[in-house]
Amino acid sequence: MLASVAMPAAAETTVVRTQAEYANAAKRLRPGDTIVLANGEWRDFQIVFTGQGAADKPITLTAETKGKVFITGQSNLRLGGRHLVVSGLVFREGHSPTEEVIAFRRDSKTPASDSRLTEVVIDGFNPPSRTKEDRWVSLYGERNRIDHSHFEGKANAGVTLAVIRNEPRADNHRIDHNYFGPRPVLGSNGGETIRIGTSDESLSDSSTIVERNIFEGCDGEVEIVSVKSGGNIVRGNLFLASQGALVLRHGNGNLVERNVFLGKGKANTGGIRVINRDQIVRGNYIEGTRGVSFLSAVALMNGVPNSKINRYHQVADAVIANNSLIDVARVTWGAGADAERSAPPIDTRIADNLIVGADGKDPVRVETDLSGVTFAGNVNAAERSVKLERGANGLLYPTDPALAGIGAPHDLVVVKRAEVGAAWYGPAPEAAFGSGRTIAVPAGGSIAKAAAKAESGDTLALAKGDFRLAAPVAVADQLTITGAGAATRLLPAGDAFSITGGGGLRLANLSIAGGANAIAVEPSATANYAVELADVQVSGLSGDVLKTAAGTMARRVAIGDSRFAGIAGAVVAGAAETGGKGTYSADRVTIADSRFENVGMVADLLRKGTDESTTGPTFAMTGSTVTASGKGGASVRLSGVQTTSITGNRFVRSGPIAVTHSVGTPSTAITGNRFAATPAPRIEELHYRGPDRARITNNIMENAQ
């Protein structure tokens, strides 16, 4: 008699070409099975991928060819079960119809555990509104891994990648070898790149590892990586020219080691901010950062006595050792000290760190009582000579053998671009102004038609003569329009230009006469945009020169060598955001060598609220003349602006400069200006009650009012 032996079913690989075929294949998945999505576009595809694989036989969802399967439109991906692997997909040209693009759970009862997301790309997958909040990846379950993936261009509110902790247990996730590419300034809280937990469950350990990733141009807000749980390891990552810091915001017993921060001299680049108990920060290398206060190379925070769970717990039993802080603008002990944050660090050791300030200055600032901190073996180049040379790893080290044990370890290995992300994916960089073709437009020709045919980076070269604009010229790409000086006149019936989508506009060597707004930003401008005016004359407007819109963000407004006369509104109207959550409409505004006569205001910038998650706006004005302007109350009105520099200008018969400090530690300098028949600058402090913070010096008052 022959025995009957049941044999396990062989693993199957199924290629699917339609959503219906996928749904059918997904119903019968077994350990070791693979579903292959055929190359091409999969539009409006809400993928549900569930199953029970095994450690040695995972269930896989992959692309026919990695990088050739595009998930577009209103699409997302939900995983549920165990031992699942997803690879090779590209999410672009769309957005999720839910609050997550990729979720490691099918629903609240079906998380994914022991699963992996690898070589997956999410690039610019944003909803139509910048204010709509979503997350690109949400980690639920336990022991999941995200590796060798590429995340770039998240422009709307919400964390790029979040560990969601619904229970006070260890998550044991791993996030490694990913590329987190440019994330533009959000202009409010909620622009983190990685967040591990929230304050609610922060007193338990997540035990998540963030290792060997690159964060490049991650400028969303002041917290690039926001740790809000305990027992995590952040190790061996590279933070490259990113505005913000790695922040131990909530939770205890975290380890931050062997990371490299290269600020490249970029404004608001930071390092590591330390809060809470039992934190270890060791062996990190930080060079070329320009952040101060919360964005210092190292910021040791003051805490709140008996703090609520969502505020600032006192630093205790921290170790900050063997870190190299080179060419840094600031190192702050007791950052954030104020009437509320009055608890200084205690039982803390700061040892064997190398500190070299930018421009040879001492970067260390002490803002609290340090009697609870032990300092040992630290070397500050402001106090003794330190010669540095670059090692084989490209990092700077002291040449003196006696200092071999000071600062970051010599065997530190900087993660390379080739080690992270999807090797097969390289998005095209955004076109710069003037980087494309030059298209001639004859006098009387249609600028609108030429703009519609132009590609991003192109230049429209207008001939001498008049150009009548019956309707606004829509600008949806990076467009430059140049003329032949004042002989090239634009005569709009209403608004001259409207910025939509991902548009940006540079105007040079031309004039605009009459109309409503010279440039109006539409709410549909979801990407951060830039506006540049160079040698431009604008006159006779019933509105503004640049009119911003709520929910949009100008990453840069630059005005130079230009003239404005008879403007009813503001030249830069950046007060569109009126909510109290710290949002604002323009991040960086610079004005140089320009003239303003009879304008409502030169600039009107507003950032309301007291949220401390952003670094802007920034305003600079130099070498300009303002005449008979701002008679309604102010010639320049800046409220909530974080960095202000107004120097070397002349104000004649105009309203005053009005500055309101509402949040943070703003830097305001009004120096070397001449005020003729113009009131002195006004500074208002909404909350701060200490000595004067604004620097108003070397100004000349003539016939002061």
TrEMBL record:
The keyword Transcription does not apply. The keyword Lyase applies. Keywords: Lyase. It holds the Pfam family Chondroitinas_B. Gene3D superfamilies: Single-stranded right-handed beta-helix, Pectin lyase-like. It comes from the Bacteria. CDD domains: PL-6. SUPFAM superfamilies: Pectin lyase-like (SSF51126). Signal peptide: none annotated. SMART domains: PbH1. GO terms for molecular function: lyase activity. This is Poly(Beta-D-mannuronate) lyase.
